[in-house]
Every structure is written in C-alpha cells, then in structure tokens.
Prior knowledge:
The protein has 284 residues and is α/β, with parallel strands linked by helices. It has a single domain (5-278), classed as TIM Barrel, CATH 3.20.20.370. It is 44% helix and 14% strand. α2 runs parallel beside α10 and α8 packs parallel to α10 (244-258). 40% of the residues are buried. Residues 16-266 form the NodB homology domain. This is Polysaccharide deacetylase. Pfam families: Polysacc_deac_1 (PF01522).
Amino acid sequence: MSEATVCLSIHFDAVSTWLWAYDSWDMPTRHSRGVYGADVGAPRLLDLLDQYDVPSTWCIPGHTIESFPEICEEVHAHGHGVQHHGWTHKGPSTYESKGAEKRDIERGIESIRDLTGEKPSGYASPAWDFSEHTLDILQELSFEWDSSVMAADFQPHYLYGGWAAPEDGPFQRGEPTDIVELPASWERDDFPPFTYTWSRPHRMGYVPEDAIFQKWYDQFDWMYEHLEDGLFVLTLHPQVIGQSHRLMRLETFLEHVHSMPGATFKTMDEVATEFRNSNPQRTD
C-alpha cells in the first residue's frame, strides 16, 4: 500500500503579487483581485479545509500579514502552518544586493513572529525565484526547509548548493546542504493557468479548467501507484482557487485523496521534519 502524502501549499499573496510581481501600483482593479483573495477566497478555503479536517501550509508575505491581519489570524487560529513567502512578493534575483534581499526576508520573519509567536521554519520564494545569495541567506537565518526548486517532482531531498554553470564547461550541481527541499512544480500551481491579465506582463488564463484538474489527478494517481512514499505538493492561491466553481473541483480532489488507502494530508513542516529524521544529513 502506498504511503502517499499531500501538502497543500497556500500562497496567500493577496495584493502583494500585483504590486511587486506585476508592477501594478496604480491599478486598483488589479489590487481588488488580491482583496478578493483576502475577503472572499481565503475564508471559503478555510471553511472547506475545516469541513474535511485537512491541514495545510500558508506561505504568507509579510505585506499580506500586515495588510490583512484579521484573516491571517484566522489562518493561524485554525491550526494551519504559517511559513515564509517574502515580506514583499519581489523575486529574490531582482534585489540589487545580498543585503537588500536579506533585509526583506528578515522583515518577513518578524511579521510571522508577530502573528504566530514563532520564527518560521520554511520558505517558499516569491515566483519560485532564487538569486545567487538566496540559499546562503536561508542558511544564515537557520531555515530548515524550502519549497521553491524543481529538481524532483514527488520526492523530498536535501537542497544542493555551490552549483556552477560555466559557459564553456559542464553544469556542476554542487553538494547537498542541510536544508530539506519539498519540490514545487508549475504543473501543480493554480495561478498560471487560471489567472488572466490583459496587459503586460500578459498571461493567457481561460484554459479548459477540467484539463488542469485532471492533470492534478493524473499526477497524484501516478505517484500513488509508482512510489512507496511520494510527496505531492499542490500550490494554491486564495484569489484563484477561491472562485466558487474551482472550490467545487478542489473539494472533489480532496475526497479523492481521502478515498485512497494510505494517503494523508500533512503540513510541510511535518514532512520536512519526518524526512530529516529518516534521512539525517551527514556532516563529515
């Protein structure tokens, strides 16, 4: 029997994604999509997770915590994990220096500490972007796990550092660090296929939604059938998945996972801790 694990990684960007990822500071209609996520999508999603007693991990920018404190407090009060997703929603590789990137991450840590009383253990980078300094910063700030890179699809592993990509030589992947990687995937993210923007940067949106949800089923079912201890990380955004028709499809997916013997939902921190305990990193 497969011991499959599903982690719901809720990226609660709210307005921040429109300000930093889309440079829409003077576009109130775009802002309103983030407000919808905070006022409508997030409460609906919390209700659904409560209904099925499903734990989840909310990766929340500090900007969202400080802009919408009440709903963020509800997320924490409902027992879901709260982890790091920047203070801004600015891609790490866009910072002008290591110091500027580190200050943003430190500010995000304090926002989460103010909300939960604890330092976050995990990090999901905005837009799944890394700079040349990001990994060093995560190590310096004692993060235990990350969910941003895509060197695997269904298997946790230790994140590699010290890589090199010379123009005139082979790629060098480096050596494993002590940070656990819980693999992310654009194939299991609701934002790219479902989010339409009509001006630069342009996104298509309006894809046949049944095809996207079917892709999630197909990937989960393959993992369940072929791997003994697979990890399925599904990334969701309240302003996207919180639309009524998508919540219905998500509910059906939750029921499907529950119907599979040995399949469970866990927080990402639980999975990272279990992996580290079962696969201690060598220090020699």
